[in-house]
Amino acid sequence: MDKNSVIFHPIISSIQKMALYETKSKYYLVGSNNTQTRFRVIKIDRMEAKDLVLYDDKVEYTAEEIQNLINMIEAGNRRSGGGGFSKVISTFGIVGFIKFLEGYYVILITKRRRVAVVGHHTIYKIEDTTMVYIPHESVRLLHPDETRYVKMFQNIDLASNFYYSYSYDLSHTLQYNLTSPKRFVPNINLDDHKDIEVNNTDHLSSSIVSGSSNLENPETQHYGVRTQPHKKFVWNMHLLRDALKAELHPDWLLYITHGFVGQSNISVFGRSVYVTLIARRSSRYAGTRFLKRGANFQGDVANEVETEQMVHDAGVSYFSQSRFTSFVQMRGSIPGHWKQEMGKMVAKPAITIDFYDPFAETAGAHFNELLKRYGAPIVILNLVKQSERKKQERLLSDELSSAVKYLNQFLPVEHQIVYKTFDMARKNKGTNANVMRHLADIAKSAVTKVGIFHNKPRYHSQETSTVIGQYKHDFGSLQTGIVRTNCVDCLDRTNTAQFAIGKCVLGYQLCALGVLDSPNLEFDTDCVRMLESLYEDHGDTLALQYGGSQLVHRIKTYRKTAPWTSQGNDIMQTLSRYYSNTFSDSEKQNAINLFLGVFQPEENQPPIWEYTSDYYFHHKPIIFSLKSLTQWWDSGVLKSLPFAYNDLTKACSELIQVHSKRVEMIDSYKDYYRPYELSVLADVFALKLSNSIRDFMPSFTTNYSPFTIRVRPVRRREETPNKSATMKNPSVSGQSSTCSTASSTSSGSDNEESSKDEESSYTNEISSSKESSPEPVTFRSLFPTMKEVYGTELKSPSEADILTYKKYVLMGKRANGSLTSIPFSPVGSTSAMKCLEAPNKDTVYSVTPPTVPQRSIEIYERYIMVGKHGGFEPSKKDMEIYERYATSR
Prior knowledge:
Elements lengths: L5 E5 L6 E6 L3 E7 L6 E7 L8 E3 L6 H18 L5 E6 L1 E7 L4 E15 L2 E13 L12 H8 L8 E3 L9 H4 L5 E2 L19 H4 L13 E7 L13 H5 L11 E12 L2 E11 L23 E9 L10 E8 L6 E3 L10 E3 L7 H14 L3 E5 L10 H16 L9 E4 L2 H4 L7 H16 L2 E2 L15 E3 L3 E3 L3 E5 L5 H21 L13 H21 L8 H4 L7 H18 L1 H12 L18 H4 L18 H4 L4 H4 L2 E8 L9 H6 L11 H4 L1 E2 H4 L26 H5 L7 H13 L1 H19 L12 H4 L3 H5 L8 H18 L37 H16 L6 H12 L2
Parallel strand pairs: 1-12, 11-25, 13-26, 16-24, 19-20, 19-24
Antiparallel strand pairs: 2-3, 2-6, 3-4, 4-5, 7-8, 8-9, 9-10, 10-13, 12-25, 13-14, 14-15, 15-16, 16-21, 17-18, 22-23
Helix pairs in contact: 9-10, 10-11, 13-22
GO molecular function: phosphatidylinositol-3,5-bisphosphate 5-phosphatase activity
Organism: Callosobruchus maculatus (Southern cowpea weevil)
Subcellular location: Endomembrane system
């Protein structure tokens, strides 16, 4: 069987709606698909005071069978006097199960919202959840600390930027998800961190990307695939441990990520190109700003976020048919053992190194993980200060530089870590500073080294210079390596640098889709302003989650376009961040540790609030290891470079061959469009999506291209004053939401003035080259004529045009039979005017296909073949004509 005739599809969960039923002795969780034709049931024992007893019979019921089962349970409880059978709540999924010092609770999703689509796969944001206590009151064993633990756990606001999907694996990148599985492991142990050796990497080029364009081939084989999630980016893994031990059917399990998801539509003359930004926060060594710095001994760094920028043609949504591109970059604290003490009331606490790591073991563990996930090269962009009177940030830079220098000694030259420093704060000083230009140069150099992922071969007419990445003729291009950006906090400077990288990448992605010929994009175009808005939201969200306030220094701050009135808002955000870090960080850290299972309450242990530090929760005792200090990477990783080890060893836990792509478990088209439901056009997600024309293009313009520089000042959507008031604070803890929202809301009027001042400053910048004094404002200058704006104007029609129109109207009336006799009219006799052929009888239900000459069909087919395979050899007659032309010159 040809490899191109095998297509892998992600398995769609058959449980997307649930209902919780209650009896005295049990909870019954009934799950169904969207059409409510397939059902499954979980029984939860309520008579166990402290243990979780789950029973999944693995049976799939029909609607009639499930109704009979419910009726039987209800009748049985009535006869036994069990207190009846009632429905408790309707839900959309299970977050997990949690236990403190009494019995177990189940956390259920009660409200969701669609925030993005990747092909036909929908990404949901959790809007609301509920916790249900499982044991019955008759067996409940009370504990005095239970209430406090419950309140602490509920400080984790699950409605603040937690995401999931029923069909798309959010914990992995698009490149990994479209990679063909290499091995089958029926029972994957999620607690196992050991990797399988790679002895042969030759098969990568032939099967790195799944899917095929040969959908019409009758021999095409379709497989449903379920892969293992990446534990590092799954935030409810601890809550699912008991469900995994009970061996529930995989459709019950939802793997939830935390971070940011945003999507916008670039409308290129009616062609929709979706730009999606997905940020995944690491669940390892997670915490708040000053309590989580550096890394632990396993190489997990603080504030690690993987950001993926996807761009795809929304006209066709199948992975196997449409063009999808993606680029992955990351941010994370400098891998070392350092901290900033919050004991003194100072805005910038001193940086201290806890202990030095001469053999860079911690940094080696971190970069080994990056090589495993992304391949080589790793490009580090270090943005900390390089010159200070008193060494502070420079201490971290020296630590990172020495670690990279040591680790590079043992890597082959072609796979060595690329280290780049850029003192962003110093370069931003001065009126003529141009930080964005320097960042653009660095971004282009880094992006061309690692490339982008593209699931299709390049267009025949695409310039070779715009194709980057490990290029494969049959399967598109791959990203090999990662761009890692950091400053001290990995917040303000890092977000601006990541935007500069994203802007550079967007040009190459649009070239890959055939939208642009050149990857160069200019600022102040609708396209780039929309991308800037996405990265601003991305940065604000991550800053609130880690630092307790929104971004202080924004992209326009480094572009030197921020108005002076924004300084007041910057001060408020700084104070908000300082207050959050000083007074509420410890409570937020305790809640995160409890949610992620870093700390698990036990009877004979002190409660979490009595610990003065959580250092030993995250830094486990070091186990003596004989691992070499020179071979700091895992065996097998070096063999796979420059490709990612994880791509080469991708395993699937479930592989099902189906007879057709229309089978419900893999039919993403039906799952997305839902033809069995009534759709309201006003509620269609595509129309609610941020659009470059509706939200970013000026109201009065004749050029609809999103790549045109707008010289006319317009207010940006992302700068409207209502945004700060309506934006949901995405902090993971409810406490920081209060302070940061208050600070941003109180400056709403400042934001409005800021927008106006920016408009005026932008106008002055454009007209600064003109020495003449400004023209007086007149009514005519405020309301230009139609001729001045559109190049045409309305005029009264000529007499000849009016006569022609009257003839047309009379002919219409006569043809319809509404006019039996034509009255005398000065337009002259109309009897000589008649229809040359019968009117077309086409309707909205059927259309008569036009007759196309064979010669025209041959010309069109030849045109298509030229686009696919290039030009044809000219005919003999054409060659003779060309030879006569050449000899005559």
